[in-house]
Amino acid sequence: MKKIHILIASVLSLFCLVFSLQRPLRAESLREDNEILFEQLRRVHHLTEKQMDSIRAIFRESGYVGQGNPAIARHPLAPGG
Question: Where residue 58 falls among pLDDT bands split at 50, 70, 90?
Answer without folding.
Answer: confident
